[in-house]
Amino acid sequence: MFKPLPNRMDMEFEGGLNEATTPHAGVSVLIDVARRSGVIATAGRCLPGKRSPKGLSQEQFVEAFVTLIALGGDCIDDFDRLRSDQGLTALLGYQMPAPSTARQWLDQFHDEKLLEDRPEQGSFIPPESAGLAGLRAVVQHSVRTYVAAVQPGPEVTLDVDAHLVASSKRSALPTYEGFRGYQPLLVAWAEAGLVLADEFRDGNVPASTNIRALVDQACASLPARADGEPWRVSVRSDSAAYEQDTLDHWHERGWRFAVSADLSPQLRRAIVALSFDAWQPWATEAKGVVREWAEVAYVPSRRQEQRAVQPYRYLAIRVRTPQGVLFGDGSTVKHFAVVTNDWTTAGQALLQWQRGKAGTIEHVHRVLKDELAAGVYPSDKFGANAAWLRLQVLTHNLLELLKATALAPQERHARPKRLRFAIFTQFGRVVHHAHQRFLRLVTRVLEAVLRPGLRRLHACAWAAP
After folding, report:
1. Using CA of residue 361, residue 366, residue 150, residue 91, what is the dihedral sign?
2. Angle at alpha carbon of residue 234, lines to 250 and 263, rounded to 5°
3. Considering the entire predicted model, what is its pTM?
4. Are the CB atoms for 335 and 268 separated by under 8 Å?
5. What is the pLDDT of residue 304?
6. In angstroms, what CA-CA distances link 279 with 26, 261, 335?
7. What is the pLDDT of residue 21?
8. Are 159 and 326 a contacting pair, CB within 8 Å?
9. E strands within 70-222?
């Protein structure tokens, strides 16, 4: 026999409970890393003060942009969608900025006076505004806190490369590919996956321009090691860095380098003149294409050549097709060359190491452009676009810091789209009750991601402000 239901609810009722739901609850672990590491607080110290105390602070603006980019937003208008997410507002402690407000904040990084020296023709790299310099300090703190928390080994391989971004903006200039756009230059730390330096550029600026200064800036962003030992620095680059002054500068600093060399007529003749026995087998690639390498006795003239100075080492690469097969340009053989100051590493191993930059800096380009938001620039103003690029770099570095400190080892090489799928896109409720705030998640996510991540973060040592 069924028991009759009571004619009233046998409990007392109280107010004071508020809930807000968000599909992005998993991003809380990234926000925690950004705040706990001091990266967000650095924005408040290093960015120029706001004219008005109203609205969001500098820290909140930077954090809002990082959150937008990490969650997959690729334009400023995407703030509208996150702005309506009440759960995310409760999670952050403030509402996301309106797109118009975010644009105004981004425009503050532009200083028209710094463009007054732009020539009528030719390329030009303007000085950075005070805001961009402050944002660079925030990125540099992300590097310092990574070193403090992760304590990486002493090897630092600096990979330097530029990438092209097509744009229909009126301010975009023609690139060497013929289309209009921009050509930013980046320096990445291969072992850590971090971007140490970035420079936004017009599309007509050659990649070789200012490359030495940017690599120096990247190295200067590395903090002193806790054990007092120096960093062991190496540089890899394509032919953009093939300039005698640049190579000499890196050599004088005690850095190992391997750079693709331009095939001058003299170098080409030296390679073609190599005997058959000089070529060493390297690999047989798709469709029977054979790759070989050889040492080349080639010494270009150096401005201050001294007998006691050891010349640089040249390695040649020959790629040839099977008999009867032609490359697209009608040839059967192609030659390339690499110059280095490393005389101890075996030739093939050195070439493979130099070729490895394709898996680091080019991977960073792909992530920034295709999985973050560096593939589309939001403004006609140079400084605003430079800030947009730097915010992509900051987000990238924070994601690397997140993977290295808070997430499980199997996520160490996860790309942003994987992090969105597996970590960030999780439904959660932000609950306020009795002057306390709770984030309620699916138990599986809580036990597999958040709690282990927070335990790992508690054990980290972070860089001082």
Report:
1. positive
2. 65
3. 0.92
4. yes
5. 47
6. 54, 18, 12
7. 87
8. no
9. 155-162, 165-166, 173-174, 180-182, 185-189, 194-199
d(CA 322, CA 320): 7
- The reported pLDDT for the residue numbered 10 is 55
In the structure encoding, which two tokens stand for residue 41, read together? 């607080």
H-helix or E-strand spanning residue 214: helix 211-220
According to DSSP, the β-strands at 280-284 and 185-189 are: unpaired
The first and second tokens of residue 213, run together, are: 């200064």
CA distance readout (Å), 363 to 198, 374, 396: 15, 13, 12
From 364, 384, 377, select the one nearest 128 (Cα to Cα).
384
State both tokens at 261: 């060399």
Residue 102: partners with Cβ closer than 8 Å, 6 or more residues away: 61, 64, 65, 76, 79
Cα 338 to Cα 235: distance, rounded to the nearest angstrom:
13
Mean pLDDT by 10 residues, the chain (465 residues): 58 60 92 95 92 88 98 96 93 95 96 91 93 98 97 97 95 94 97 98 95 98 94 97 95 97 93 94 86 92 56 94 73 92 96 91 96 96 97 98 95 95 90 78 82 89 89
On the 0-12 / 13-18 / 19+ scale of CB atoms within 10 A, 229 is exposed
CA distance 446 to 237: 43
**Structure-derived torsion over alpha carbons of residues 185, 186, 187, 193, reported in degrees to the nearest 10:** -160
Enter the DSSP assignment of 170: T
Helix (H, G, I), strand (E, B) or coil at 189: strand
The alpha helices in 75-125, defined as continuous H runs, are 79-83, 86-92, 99-107
Cβ pair 196, 189 in contact under 8 A = yes
Give residue 182's identity as a one-letter amino acid code. Y
Question: How many residues would you count in the chain?
Answer: 465
Q: Which residue type, as a one-letter code, is found at position 349? A: A
Distance, CA of 120 to CA of 359 (rounded, Å): 38
C-alpha closest to that of 138 among 35, 68, 56, 32? 35
Residue showing tokens 């050195």:
350
Cβ atoms within 10 Å of 54's Cβ, excluding its own:
6
